[in-house]
Design brief:
alpha/beta; LRR_dom_sf; Leucine-rich repeat, LRR (right-handed beta-alpha superhelix); 16 helices; F-box domain-containing protein; twelve-stranded parallel beta sheet
Length: 448
């Protein structure tokens, strides 16, 4: 085992990149394993601060304390990469042993928000220390592929010596419309290889830094490999933003049209203009998770635009009400590659919907996720029992379904639990899961 080819070992350990405990244990085996594993662990050192799922109030304080300890440990490693001269210049009293590896050189992900948070706990608050530390990550000897820019970020990355070679092959960018235009315009000048864009969009009253937002428009337009886009609308008057009445939001959508033939993944929490979808013939993943405003006519137009223009869609998430049932039936008939469907439903009575799913779903569709629209007045809302009975009845003889409900607590009801158990035994349901709060998931493949 110890003499396995390094390339094979690398592939094995890379499969374990989310299992940090196993990797930490494995790097103690011998020097060769250590040399292979350390770059994997340091590819994305910010991952240890990421929180997946729900943290209970009981565990929140412990989690925050652990987070602070991790930040301090990471800060110590980062500072150890500074030269003695720099440490003396900024009066850093703690002396650090020089690291065995150039850990920062292994970083492919750079989360500037986390980095700022770590720098803020330093003993030294002198102006310029931030520049020295960020230069450790961005220089001619590093190669960043995933960049996370926080809100209201002002540091002009393109002016850092070596930034052009460091960010030349950027693959992923997370930023917002609050990021200063100069930062994004400068980034557009050196990086044209972004494949995935995650953009937080704020209302104009939030955008006191950027009046025109020309930077993000230019950045999108100059890309050559863009295929995965997420627009998340936020800000002080979300969810009441009048998206369709503002020219900037039109310009933002129009900036993607140049890349329409390449874009296969598009996610937004606000429904776009229906004619926007007419350009995106190759979409495979389409998510429109609008839980606040459901305009029936607009929704019908969106569903029609999907089945007329996006026949290759495999994953679909849309809001739904019963007035859209005829257009929805057309969608099921014409989108034959669909295998995953996530509906945010307005009504609790879904018999017509579930009957339509049972009769007209394409052969490959078997993954379902259902959520009822947010209602702050009422408590737990559930799709009616008779609706689920109808769904399971019409699904007999089809591919066993994977079913997930959000916030319905079906397992807490004897009637619902018995119904699900019955159809599991009949082979209609392969797996059922109910989650109280939907976790934030960034990987499109995560479904159930």
């Amino acid at each position: 085992m110890l003499n396995l080819d390094r390339d094979i070992l690398f592939q094995i350990f890379e499969k374990l990149q989310d299992d940090r405990n196993s990797l930490h244990n494995s790097l103690l085996v011998n020097v060769s394993w250590c040399e292979i594993i350390v770059p994997i662990l340091w590819k994305n050192p910010w991952k240890c601060f990421s929180t997946h799922g729900k943290i209970s109030r009981r565990n929140l304080q412990t989690h925050l304390l652990n987070d602070e300890k991790k930040k301090k440990l990471l800060l110590d490693v980062i500072i150890s990469h500074l030269s003695d001269e720099t440490s003396d210049t900024f009066g850093l009293t703690t002396k650090y042993k020089k690291p065995l590896f150039n850990y920062i050189g292994f970083c492919k992900h750079l989360n500037l928000g986390d980095l700022e948070g770590i720098i803020n706990i330093m003993e030294c608050k002198k102006l310029g220390v931030y520049d020295k530390i960020i230069n450790l990550f961005i220089n001619e000897n590093t190669r960043i592929t995933h960049l996370y820019i926080p809100h209201k970020f002002k540091h002009k990355l393109h002016l850092i010596p070596g930034a052009e070679s460091c960010l030349l092959r950027l693959e992923y960018l997370q930023c917002s419309t609050l990021t200063e235009d100069d930062v994004l315009v400068g980034l557009a000048e050196i990086s044209e290889s972004i494949e995935e864009l995650n953009l937080n969009i704020y209302g104009l009253q939030d955008n006191y830094y950027n009046v025109n937002n020309n930077g993000i428009i230019k950045l999108i337009q100059c890309q050559k490999k863009l295929n995965n886009v997420r627009f998340y609308y936020a800000g002080t008057n979300y969810p009441y933003m009048e998206i369709n009445s503002n020219s900037f939001y039109k310009d933002l959508e129009n900036s993607l049209i140049k890349h329409a033939s390449n874009i296969q993944y598009f996610s937004t929490n606000k429904k776009p203009y229906p004619n926007f979808l007419s350009y995106f013939k190759n979409l495979k993943y389409l998510e429109m998770s609008d839980d606040y405003t459901l305009n029936t006519v607009h929704n019908q137009m969106i569903i029609k635009a999907i089945y007329e223009n996006c026949p290759n869609v495999e994953y679909l998430e849309i809001p739904f009400n019963n007035n859209c049932i005829l257009e929805f039936e057309n969608l099921l008939v014409k989108c034959q590659y669909l295998d995953s469907l996530y509906l945010t439903i307005e009504e609790e009575d879904c018999e017509n919907l579930f009957e339509t799913l049972g009769k007209h779903s394409p052969e490959g569709l078997f993954k379902f996720k259902f959520k009822l629209r947010t209602n702050l007045i009422r408590g737990i809302r559930r799709i009616s029992l008779i609706s689920f009975k109808s769904f399971f009845h019409y699904w007999k003889g089809k591919h066993p379904m994977l079913l997930q409900t959000i916030g319905m607590s079906l397992n807490k009801s004897v009637d619902y639990s018995d119904l699900i158990d019955t159809y599991k035994l009949m082979g209609v349901i392969k797996k059922y899961d109910d989650v109280e709060i939907e976790p934030f998931i960034t990987e499109y493949s995560s479904f159930l």
